């Protein structure tokens, strides 16, 4: 009985319960059988007691772990709140400093140099932070893999079982291949299927879509290029409703996540192992490759029967362009110009493929096929240069294309500013070498536009309006 008491904490009537049970089941038996019965009863009771004690210990430990976990979670939440608070303070501080230095940058060369240094410092710290996060992730992954390796090393590998599993997988693959072969006549290519879905979702009733292409470099930072581009739709006249017809084609997972977060129409373009993630410096090899991949994709869109406006994301839409684009269906292509010579039908205009509207028909499909076929025979030329050469060689006339070249009064750029802010439709940061320079000068355009719509009340103020000089883009060619 002393052993039972130590194990189960006898007392308070438990001893009596034990004796009652013993007498109930064993007393009616003979002496020898009574001894056997009582011994078995005692062994069973002791086993039950040990189990009860173990359960109580596990319960206590579980409660202690719950308390510890709750404490860790509380500390984690507090650290996250503190981190968010610090991040918000840093963002507010940077915004104030950026705005202050930006105003000074418009006054003199020293201010512009200071703003350039500020943006470089901010970009460097963003890169450092990203590298630290990547290093931390890598360390955690290394630790995780080391743990998995240790676990695998402690296991004995059953070769026969592995072979059996492999044979099972092969049989399943054979069945799947047979099923796919049987259904091939009814299947649709997944590339086309997804593309058709997003095109149909974004298009107007007459199957026209607005298309822009971005990669990681255009979606990261405090005020990335994609956000500046979308600001134009928000601040422009009659442009906000056009967002529902905008399809953002992305080159990588980061830009795809950003696009879906903004609830836009998004399509991830397959790049066949080519890295189109970071900034591609103007006229670099990767820049030229990316432009050709863009041309190939846009040709595929035409072949699916969709007309489109293609726009670079460094084009601000300040007014609805459909009001200034011809709706004459005999015009196959309406394309922007770097420098407009005054004649909208003159093939001597210098084109810019950063903004154009094209109709889907046999002539334009043939043009894109011809254009893309020049890719491997145009070393050192970007796709825009090749298209300009096709015009000079008379290829547009050979295909029977009717082309309208857009006046920079309406479809302007940094190469040639619009002289009429009351008529301007788009502003393109062309004649500029780097993304950061484009963003800085496009922000200046947004400031100018806000100033115009806030203060303009008569034609006199419109006639005296001046765009802020594009200092950052001018300086981008110096380094």
UniProtKB/TrEMBL annotation:
Domain spans labelled CCDC22 coiled-coil: 54-153
Location of the Nucleotide-diphospho-sugar transferase domain: 242-442
Record keywords: Coiled coil
Extent of the signal sequence: none
InterPro entries in alphabetical order: At1g28695/At4g15970-like, CCDC22_CC, Nucl-diP-sugar_transferase
Highest taxon of source: Eukaryota
Pfam families in the cross-refs: CCDC22_CC, Nucleotid_trans
Coiled coil: 159-186
Name recorded for this polypeptide: Nucleotide-diphospho-sugar transferase domain-containing protein
């Amino acid at each position: 009985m002393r052993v039972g008491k130590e194990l189960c904490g006898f007392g308070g009537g438990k001893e009596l319960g034990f004796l009652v049970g013993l007498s109930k089941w064993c007393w009616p038996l003979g002496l020898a059988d009574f001894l056997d019965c009582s011994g078995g009863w005692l062994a069973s009771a002791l086993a039950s007691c040990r189990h009860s004690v173990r359960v109580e210990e596990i319960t206590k430990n579980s409660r202690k772990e719950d308390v510890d976990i709750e404490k860790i979670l509380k500390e984690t939440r507090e650290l996250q709140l503190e981190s968010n608070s610090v991040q918000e303070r840093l963002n507010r501080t940077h915004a104030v400093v950026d705005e202050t230095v930006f105003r000074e940058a418009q006054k003199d060369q020293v201010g512009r140099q200071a703003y350039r240094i500020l943006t470089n410092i901010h970009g460097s710290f963003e890169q450092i932070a990203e590298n630290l996060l990547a290093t931390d992730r890598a360390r955690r992954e290394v630790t995780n893999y080391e743990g998995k390796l240790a676990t695998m090393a402690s296991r004995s590998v059953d070769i026969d079982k592995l072979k059996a599993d492999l044979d099972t997988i092969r049989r399943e693959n054979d069945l799947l291949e047979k099923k796919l072969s049987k259904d091939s006549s009814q299947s649709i290519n997944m590339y086309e299927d997804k593309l058709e879905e997003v095109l149909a979702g974004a298009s107007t009733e007459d199957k026209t879509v607005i298309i822009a292409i971005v990669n990681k470099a255009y979606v990261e930072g405090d005020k990335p290029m994609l956000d500046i581009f979308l600001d134009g739709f928000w601040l422009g006249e009659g442009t906000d409703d056009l967002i529902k017809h905008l399809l953002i084609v992305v080159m990588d997972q980061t830009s795809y996540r950003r696009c879906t977060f903004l609830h836009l129409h998004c399509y991830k373009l397959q790049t066949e192992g080519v890295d189109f993630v970071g900034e591609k410096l103007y006229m670099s090899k990767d820049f030229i490759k990316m432009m050709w991949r863009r041309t190939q994709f846009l040709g595929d869109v035409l072949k699916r029967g969709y007309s489109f406006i293609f726009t670079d994301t460094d084009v601000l839409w300040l007014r609805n362009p459909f009001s200034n684009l011809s709706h004459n269906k005999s015009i196959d292509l309406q394309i922007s110009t770097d420098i407009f010579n005054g004649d909208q039908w003159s093939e001597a205009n210098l084109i810019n493929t950063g903004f154009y509207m094209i109709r889907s028909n046999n002539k334009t499909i043939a043009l894109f096929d011809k254009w893309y076929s020049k890719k491997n025979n145009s070393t050192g030329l970007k796709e825009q240069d090749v298209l300009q050469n096709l015009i000079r060689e008379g290829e547009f006339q050979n295909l029977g294309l009717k082309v309208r070249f857009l006046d920079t009064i309406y479809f302007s750029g940094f190469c040639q500013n619009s002289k009429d802010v009351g008529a301007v439709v788009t502003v393109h940061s062309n004649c500029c070498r780097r993304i950061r320079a484009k963003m800085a000068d496009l922000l200046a355009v947004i400031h100018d536009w806000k100033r115009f719509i806030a203060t303009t009340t008569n034609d006199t103020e419109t006639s005296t309006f001046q765009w802020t000089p594009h200092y950052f883009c001018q300086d981008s060619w110096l380094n």
